[in-house]
């Protein structure tokens, strides 16, 4: 994997791993049970603790399974309960709003995240960024993960 991850993203992923481990232990859920519940191979879940980052959709599934917010899992919010909206929007719509509100062009966002403009242009067609980029965007725009991906209005 050739991604460049900063301290902020590493911090969020450490929180994710620690909070997921704690939730699994508290609820007596192993990777097999969680995998079956969210439709992900248990070996993939085990690798999240060592050498693989989950995808954004996987994080959302984990949060739904445990009834918590993804922002809680990442340590972006102390609130356990999710605050989902009834009319979710898509990532690109939310990204566009946040970038414009910050006065940033796609080029400026790409540069801030250490990716090419081509990566940003793929988001227009519905491609979800890799998790480390989403976490960089949360930090860049000062917003929560669930807000960024369009499932929360807060």
Question: Would you write up a description of this structure?
Answer:
There is one protein chain. With 154 residues, the chain is mainly alpha-helical. It is built from ten helices and no strands. Helix 1 packs across helix 9, helix 2 (31-38) crosses helix 3 and helix 7 (106-113) packs across helix 8 (117-123). The termini are far apart.
Compact description:
The protein has 154 residues and is mainly α. Helix content is 60%, strand content 0%.
- Helicity, in percent? 55-70%
List the total number of helices: 10
- What would you report as the Rg, rounded to the nearest angstrom? 15 Å
What order do the SSEs take from the amino end to the carboxyl end, as H and E?
HHHHHHHHHH
Which tags fit this structure?
single chain, 154 residues, mainly alpha
Q: Could you give the topology of this structure?
A:
Blueprint (H helix, E strand, L loop, with lengths): L6 H20 L4 H8 L3 H7 L7 H11 L3 H5 L16 H11 L4 H8 L3 H7 L7 H11 L3 H4 L6
Helix pairs in contact: 1-9, 2-3, 7-8
């Amino acid at each position: 994997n050739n991604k460049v991850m900063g301290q902020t993203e590493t911090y969020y992923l450490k929180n994710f791993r620690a909070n997921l481990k704690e939730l699994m232990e508290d609820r007596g859920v192993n990777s097999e049970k969680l995998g079956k519940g969210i439709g992900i191979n248990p070996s993939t879940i085990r690798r999240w603790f060592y050498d693989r980052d989950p995808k954004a959709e996987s994080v959302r599934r984990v949060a739904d399974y445990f009834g918590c917010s993804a922002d809680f899992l990442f340590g972006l919010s102390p609130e356990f309960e999710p605050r989902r909206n009834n009319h979710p929007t898509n990532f690109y719509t939310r990204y566009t709003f946040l970038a414009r509100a910050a006065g940033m062009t796609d080029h400026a966002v790409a540069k801030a995240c250490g990716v090419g403009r081509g990566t940003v242009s793929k988001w227009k067609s519905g491609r979800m960024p890799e998790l480390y980029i989403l976490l960089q965007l949360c930090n860049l725009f000062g917003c929560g993960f669930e807000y960024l991906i369009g499932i929360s209005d807060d």
